[in-house]
Specification:
It is a single chain. This protein is globular. It has 241 residues and is an alpha/beta fold. The protein has 8 helices and 11 strands. Helices cover 27% and strands 25% of the residues. The chain has a single domain, classed as Vaccinia Virus protein VP39 (Rossmann fold). Strands 1, 2, 3, 4, 5, 9, 10 and 11 form an 8-stranded mixed beta sheet that branches. It has a 3-stranded antiparallel beta sheet with strand order 6-7-8, with no helix packed on it. Its EC number is 2.1.1.222, 2.1.1.64. InterPro entries: Methyltransf_11, SAM-dependent_MTases_sf. Keywords: Methyltransferase, S-adenosyl-L-methionine, Transferase. This is Class I SAM-dependent methyltransferase.
């Protein structure tokens, strides 16, 4: 019996988001794809991808979170890795990542975008996720929304609200998500799905496919760190970010 066969589901998949697991079941995420977890936290969604040797990259603005993911990768990733965890898992904000355009087959952003400071910040983060996604690639987003809670949330201004559970979040409604999808000429691969948790908070799943059309000028990776040789990206432009 192989190691994978002897594992239970929790060991194999960790605390993966159930709607991200759904995308795996539907075959939209498969071995051989290059994945980015933008706002990875402690890596709750990465256990399966690390175990299966996916070409996995991640960013988070928290140094502690990034170090936790690096440690997880050292524990779970197959031996013989050519790229160090320090290169793969980077401390960067979602709205300003160092990757070149069209780098990833799948971009995951789970429970991140509702931390936007306002709508401008939200749009910056979405645009950056879209920029690094390859044409034909999948953008998977889970975020708090106000759908179904309109009479229970208290506005703070700038698109931020106090939820019934006491938390403060930027809440994107279906209208804003539709406008963002239209702005980026995105193809919706799933209907919007919103889960209401006892009228305390709502979480919406947003899945988009990037069309095979270029809508912005290419830029090169903004970091001294390079992706693997043979990917076509170079590293000529730097920033202090």
């Amino acid at each position: 019996m192989s190691e994978a066969q002897s594992m239970n589901v929790r060991e194999q998949f960790g605390n993966i988001d159930i709607y991200l697991f759904d995308q795996l079941l539907k075959g939209r995420i498969a071995p051989g794809m290059r994945l980015l977890d933008a706002g990875c936290g402690n890596g709750r969604n990465l256990v399966h991808f690390l175990r299966e040797g996916y070409d996995l990259w991640a960013v988070d603005r928290s140094a502690e979170a990034v170090e936790a993911v690096r440690a997880l990768a050292r524990e779970l990733a197959p031996h013989g890795e050519r790229i160090s965890p320090e290169e793969r898992f980077r401390m960067e904000p979602v709205e300003k990542m160092s990757f070149a355009n069209d780098t990833f087959d799948v971009v995951i952003s789970c429970a991140v975008l509702h931390f936007a400071e306002n709508e401008t910040h939200f749009q910056q983060m979405v645009s950056e996720l879209w920029r690094v996604l390859k044409p034909g690639g999948l953008l998977f987003v889970r975020l708090a929304s106000g759908e179904g809670l309109e009479d229970r949330i208290r506005p703070l201004g700038g698109g931020r609200y106090v939820l019934p559970d006491g938390s403060e979040r930027f809440l994107a409604d279906s209208g804003l998500l539709e406008r963002m999808a239209e702005k980026h000429h995105a193809l919706q691969v799933e209907p919007l799905k919103t889960v209401n948790v006892e009228n305390l908070r709502c979480m919406t799943t947003w899945c988009l496919k990037k069309p095979h059309i270029l809508f912005f000028d290419p830029i090169e990776e903004r970091s001294e760190e390079r992706l693997p040789e043979g990917t076509g990206e170079t590293d000529e432009t730097e920033t202090g970010g």
